[in-house]
Design brief:
By secondary structure, the protein is of the alpha/beta class. 40% of the residues lie in helices and 22% in strands. It is built from ten helices and seven strands. Strands 3-2-1-4-5-7-6 form a seven-stranded mixed sheet. Strand 4, helix 4 and strand 5 form a beta-alpha-beta unit. It starts with 9 loop residues before the first helix and ends in a 20-residue tail after the last strand. The structure holds S-adenosylmethionine. The site of S-adenosylmethionine (SAM) has 24 residues, from helix 1 and helix 2. The site of S-adenosylmethionine has 24 residues, from helix 1 and helix 2.
Length: 284
């Protein structure tokens, strides 16, 4: 299974994560350094938070965006009015593009959901030209994503199954400090630079924090969808107390940090243990 992200519905994704990834996208673009005239690849475009932010800020020549989830690909395509953008279903660990085809390969909040993230980085390197840039970001789930931390710590106090899921969400090597940089170096990328990017996740009230989890989207949505009525009510009760933290219901602003990493494809090709050839040959 090349994806462990629970993708069900594009509108639910917007409520759960799209509104935040849109906010993160400009910071990521600044670090990734996308430039005018380039041919870009986006891996794991989802509903298009990075895709359409790129379109609004960078005069690229062409952007190919792929995602594993059909429902997100359909939603992003329906939104697209830009003839420079091509959106396709695809797999990060088996990119169907020729070697050195792109100037820059980007991926926002995807690699933590790919069981073999090192293979995905090696694939992004393969399809990027020498001197081009590969860049990716993941949430700092272990130490820098307050709303998720509240959710899983509360759930784990109530349910042993949530302890396992909390570990899966927060303790993957790829989300640890230096995790992306290690993958980038292992893929043979040069001038690797990893840094934190900070946004705030602002909620109007507890309902605005809690209700997106009820849509079943993403890992936390999938967990809530699997609970019975009584367990769900118990989780809601304890999450409400954590959200309120002794103050009346109303707006809260939570810090959310992502690790962003970029590296340059060296001019002289160097072999990488995780490297694979193109999976399906050239598309264009
Ligand atoms: C948290 S979402 C991020 C989406 C978008 N980049 C954004 O920032 O809103 C994770 C995305 O990774 C995609 N994904 C997971 N595994 C993938 C794979 N092997 N190949 C392509 N996309 C994948 C999911 O379908 C989902 O759209």
């Amino acid at each position: 299974m090349p994806s462990i992200f629970n993708a069900r519905d594009a509108d639910s994704y917007e409520q759960t994560m799209g509104r935040w990834s849109r906010r993160l996208a400009p910071l990521f673009i600044e670090h990734a350094g996308a430039a005018a005239g380039e041919r870009l690849l986006e891996v794991g475009c989802g509903t298009g938070s990075l895709t359409f932010t790129l379109a609004g800020t960078v005069a690229f020549e062409e952007l190919t965006a792929i995602d594993y989830a059909d429902v997100y690909v359909a939603a992003a395509r329906a939104k697209n009015r830009d003839p420079r953008i091509h959106i396709e279903q695809g797999d990060a660990v088996a990119l169907c593009f020729p070697d050195a085809h792109f100037d820059r390969a980007l991926s926002l909040l995807v690699l933590q959901f790919v069981p073999e993230p090192g293979v995905a980085v090696a694939q992004m390197r393969r399809v990027t030209r020498p001197g081009g840039v590969v860049a990716a970001a993941v949430w700092d789930s272990g130490g820098g994503l307050v709303p998720q931390r509240i959710f899983w710590d509360t759930a784990a106090m109530l349910d042993a199954a949530a302890v396992v899921q909390r570990g899966r969400a927060m303790s993957k090597p790829v989300v640890a400090p230096g995790g992306l940089a290690r993958l980038f170096s292992a893929a043979g990328l040069a001038d690797v630079d990893e840094r934190p990017l900070l946004i705030r996740m602002e909620h109007a009230d507890f309902a605005d924090y809690w209700e997106p989890f009820l849509n079943g989207e993403g890992p936390m949505g999938a967990y809530v969808a699997g609970l019975g009525v009584a367990d769900r009510a118990r989780l809601e009760h304890h999450l409400r107390a954590a959200y309120l933290a002794g103050a009346p219901d109303g707006p809260r602003s939570f810090a959310a940090i992502a690790w962003s990493c970029r590296g340059v494809v060296p001019s002289v090709a160097s072999a990488s243990p995780a490297r694979r050839g193109p999976a399906g040959g050239a598309r264009k």
